[in-house]
Amino acid sequence: MTVSAQAVSVLCRTPVFSVAMQISYFHVPVEMPQDLRSDAAVVIDVLRATTTIAWSLHNGAEAVQAFASLDDLRAAAAAWPADARLLLGERGGQMLEGFDLGNSPVAVTPERVAGKRLFMSTTNGTRALDRVREVPLLLTAALPNREAVAQRLLAKQPSHVSIVGSGWEGAYSLEDSLAAGALGHRLLELDSTGSSAANDELTAAVSLWRQWQSEPEACLRTATHGQRLIRLGDHDADFRCCAGLDQLSVVPTQVEPGVLRAA
Questions:
Q1: What's the pLDDT at 45?
Q2: What is the CATH number of the domain that holds 243?
Q3: What is the helix (H) or strand (E) element at residue 239, kind and residue range?
Q4: What's the CA gap between 137 and 74, in Å, rounded?
Q5: Mean pLDDT per 10-residue run, the chain (263 residues)?
Q6: Residue 76 domain-assigned (yes or no)
Q7: Would residue 92 count as lying in a domain?
Q8: Which of 84, 177, 219, 230 has a CB 3.0–4.6 Å from the CB of 212, allowing a cystine?
């Protein structure tokens, strides 16, 4: 069950203070300078990892544990009770052999995931999470929980936020920049005097969002990874779900390295 954008705003609304928040966007994690001292990071993988994570936690998953390595995932999952775990994974957009689910936000229904720990590894998103796991406040965002994440950041008042795209195998992705722009645009809109763009990449992403904000699904389908999914089969429901703006109040938050819970 989804909630309206108005309901999300009511659920997540917090007093907005001038926080002097600097916002940067990096297309992929390796673009982040090693000496950058971000006190918050937001990882984005619109198609489809961070959308799937948000919907999983919204639908009652106990936690999502993300892995860059499949060997590490299998070892951790083996130590968890079989009736309380699910393995989620894909490579190249296709479900991994022997896993319970692929990487589809429409597949993580309450009936499948409620009360379960989801052990997850994907081509790009979980690898991006692994690269920034040491940042003090680590969140994930997608278009469905954009408003909730913006409100959480304003409530926490970090001095510097790094929005990190997952890209595709180390390269730029249009869809992640779209969502980064959506989040950046909302933060600047909510706190126009205290928050500012810290790099040109964020400014460009905001411009991209302004161009496509009335038809985000069309942008997702235009992206090269969107085209890849179209070639793999019928992903219409995934596209609709990934493009649904401000539908969820859940904010996936790292509570221990690699482990995300609803907050």
A1: 97
A2: 3.90.1560.10
A3: helix 236-243
A4: 27
A5: 52 52 96 90 97 98 97 98 97 94 97 98 95 96 98 97 95 97 98 95 98 98 96 96 98 98 93
A6: no
A7: no
A8: 219
∠ CA(174), CA(131), CA(247), 5° rounding? 50
Q: Which amino acid is at 90?
A: E
Range of the domain at 197: 5-51+130-262
- Pair of tokens at residue 246: 């401000």
In a domain, 9, yes or no: yes
56-76 in b/e form (b: 16+ CB < 10 A) is: bbbbbbbbbbbbbeeeebbeb
Count H helices and E strands in the chain, helices first: 11, 11
Query: Per the structure, how many domains does the chain have?
Result: 1
Amino acid identity for residue 27 in this structure: H
Query: What integer pLDDT is reported at residue 14 of this predicted model?
Result: 46
145 Cβ contact partners less than 8 Å away, ≥ 6 residues apart: 8, 54, 246, 247, 248, 249, 250, 251, 252
Provide the 3-class DSSP secondary structure of residue 192: coil
Residue 222 carries which side chain, given as an amino acid letter? Answer: T
Note the pLDDT of residue 15. Answer: 46
d(CA 231, CA 250): 31
Give the per-residue pLDDT at 19: 52
Tokens of 142: 């997608």
Q: 72 near 17, Cβ under 8 Å?
A: no
C-beta separation of 21 from 187 below 8 A: yes
